[in-house]
Design goal:
The chain has 4 helices and 4 strands; from the N terminus they run αβαβαββα. It has 132 residues and is α/β, with parallel strands linked by helices. The chain has a domain of 77 residues: Diaminopimelate Epimerase, Chain A, domain 1. It has a 4-stranded mixed β-sheet with strand order 1-2-3-4, with helices on one face. Strand 2, helix 3 and strand 3 form a beta-alpha-beta unit. The termini are far apart.
């Protein structure tokens, strides 16, 4: 603050700045807290190992979720395929959410729990990749 700035004696109290979070990152990080942290992987095997350790410490009927994975930073330059997640967790829902968040790699279990077929055609007029 400059020399002419007003100073206020708070008499031992604390003053916090206004926290305005218009993009929900704080709440997003809180929501991800119970899941496996998969940042920094250099190969596709690394987040899958992290997920396996995470899953081993959870009840068998819970959703296995990892987040923060960067599919552009791993040597394979992709997220895991449904079949790769199915091989690890055939009877348990599993997902790996990339750092970009709007998409995820999931195994066959979550769609099947809701009656959604796993072999779907690409969405009409959609430019993102779709791997069934």
């Amino acid at each position: 603050a400059g020399p002419r700035a007003e100073r206020v004696d708070l008499k031992g109290a604390c003053l916090y700045p206004g926290f305005i979070e218009s993009h929900s990152h704080l709440s997003l990080y809180a929501a991800w807290k119970p899941y496996a942290y998969c940042v920094g992987a250099r190969s596709l095997a690394e987040p899958l190992e992290i997920l396996a350790v995470h899953a081993a410490g959870r009840p068998a009927d819970t959703f296995v979720v990892g987040y923060g994975f960067d599919d552009t930073a791993v040597s394979e330059k992709r997220g895991p395929l449904r079949q790769e997640l199915d091989a690890l967790w055939p009877d348990r829902p599993a997902a790996l959410v990339p750092v970009s968040v709007p998409a995820a790699s999931i195994n066959s279990r979550p769609p099947s729990l809701h009656g959604i077929p796993t072999a779907l055609p690409p969405p009409h007029n959609h430019v993102s990749s779709w791997v069934a």
